[in-house]
Amino acid sequence: MGTEDSSDVAEAKTGAGRVTLGFQAEVRQLLHLMIHSLYSNKEIFLRELISNASDANDKLRFLALADPALLGNDPELKIRIIFDAKNRTISVSDNGIGMSRQELIDNIGTIARSGTAEFLGQMTGDSRKDAQLIGQFGVGFYSAFIVADRVVVETRRAGVADSDGVRWESDGKGEYSIAPIVRSERGTRIILQLKKDEVEFSDGSRLRSLIRKYSDHIGFPVTLADAEKPQDQPQTVNSATALWTRSRSDISDPEYRELYKHLSHDFTDPLTWSHNKVEGKRQYTSLLYIPATAPFDLWNRDAPRGLKLYVQRVFIMDQADQFLPLYLRFVKGVVDSADLPLNVSRELLQQDASLEGIRTALTRRVIDMLDKLASNDADGYAKFWSAFGQVFKEGLVEDSQNREKLAALLRFATTRSEGEKQDQSLDDYLSRAPKDQDRIYFILGDSHAKAIASPHLEQLKSRGIEVLLLTDRIDPWIIDHLEEFRGKKLQDVGRGELELPQGDGAVADKALDDENRPLLKKIRRTLKDRVDTVNVSRRLVDSAACVVASEQDLAPRLRRMLEASGQKVPQTKPILELNIRHPLVARLSAETDNERFADLSNIVLDHALLAEGAPLENPAGYVKRMNKLLVDLEKNKP
């Protein structure tokens, strides 16, 4: 949604302070898609509006701790729904914090600042899939236009004069208007003029069933009244009890799922959850959820995140990020503490002595949740890994205390996997390894195709030794923090000397070195400006050569990533390894012409670098040498 200074906004003042503004083009497109694509999920609009009302009440209750005057003569926070079948209207009202004129523009226009383009890019036209995106992009308010021809928002912020009320009005097509009003009640009222074919939502029994289905867990009374029967008292429809304060045995799975959707504004069910009450030295209740889908800003480490914090059932903070480490930023849920002071602020929370103990316990609880999910629901864990695996890997760097448990939950593609699917654990790998194998072998690659085709794997493949294929962008950063697992050292097959189990396929190392010492010495001398040294390879079977980084050097893929990001890295030379049995190396060994020997040596190195995915420093020189070689071959044809 636009603001007054947007270049995409047309403005016209009409009447007493009323201003008409135009939606930004992206928001117009968004509204069109929502209205026409989400028809099968249209009832979700009520849940979204009630959730927003609940949040407004929560915020006022917290602010009133420091300023009780904000509650005035209306201390009972509630949510009211009034339906009018005759006029096809519904109103959803709260007596919470309310909004000022600018807050109204900003809050309803969140989508314009937080990912409209990404949202539109992921819209598919499939109503079920598109509905799942709404919560990820914070556009729940706009769902009102699925069932309404016109939406009116009337609001006044708590603590300001009656004359400072504001009305927002739109048909969701091209424009909206903002006008000052006199409003005696604080809080917000949203009035929906229903479409002719959505009259079902002005029926009391239909609304009552939706409230109980989606919003029974809301911690404020949700009342329902018929505008045509003003003499009747409004009826409270929901239980009005915070779900996490109830006993687990009294809560059904559908209730847990609906609370998750309220907390996260996600339209998909969570993969799993854990509800626990801790008593003793620290007293708190936690309800933690693992989502099934990732939000669009998952990779933004600075994006708002965290759990909802309540103290003695009073809402304190919407996104308390102190209770879980950053690599678990996808977890949703509630912490309700009996120990923290009611007036706790973010600064005070950071200094609280009991926080670290709660954080440690909640982190372990999430890890245990994931361990149970992996053990009991392979498909569910596969969904988790697909959505959050790369973020979860950050824990190897950030959480040394739980590194062994985290490592057991990692999933990889290997040389024995079907395609690129990351579905193998390190325990799976070790269960298939020969008894004499004391290493866990892995390779870093820019892609699955490049990794599995790497010449570094040839000797291992020929001997049936499985290799982990690490191709995620984060892998080069985190793998050095996982030195071993279950007592087995991890080894990068593209760095240092390759140590393999002894067996029939082992290469006689010393004999090959001694036999080829003159050739290695000559190539080292020829390529001294380009390589650190030249060795006989224990890795290769079919390829002529490969390049290897030393144990002290950066892995080649990590080096390329750092260079691509503009960072300076120490200049090093690779180690060239030769497959001494390859015909090309035999041809090189037999070459007596020094110039041709130099050309062939450089070509062998260039091919090894290309196979590694590294760019050539002098492509023109490589092309010149290849052209010369091809011409010589043509001349020497019999």
- Structural class, by secondary structure, is alpha+beta
| CATH class category name of the largest domain | Alpha Beta
Global morphology:
elongated
Radius of gyration: 32 Å
Number of helices: 23
Largest sheet: 10 strands, mixed
| CATH fold-level label of the largest domain | Heat Shock Protein 90
Count structural domains. 3
Order of strands in the sheet with most strands: 1-2-7-6-5-8-4-3-9-10
First-residue to last-residue Cα separation: 77 Å
| Uncertain parts | 1-14, 109-116, 134-138, 504-508
Helical content band: 25-40%
Beta-strand segment tally: 23
The average pLDDT value, as a whole number, equals 85
Strand content: 15-25%
CATH homologous superfamily of the largest domain, by name?
Answer: Histidine kinase-like ATPase, C-terminal domain
Q: Which architecture of the largest domain would the CATH scheme give at its second level?
A: 2-Layer Sandwich
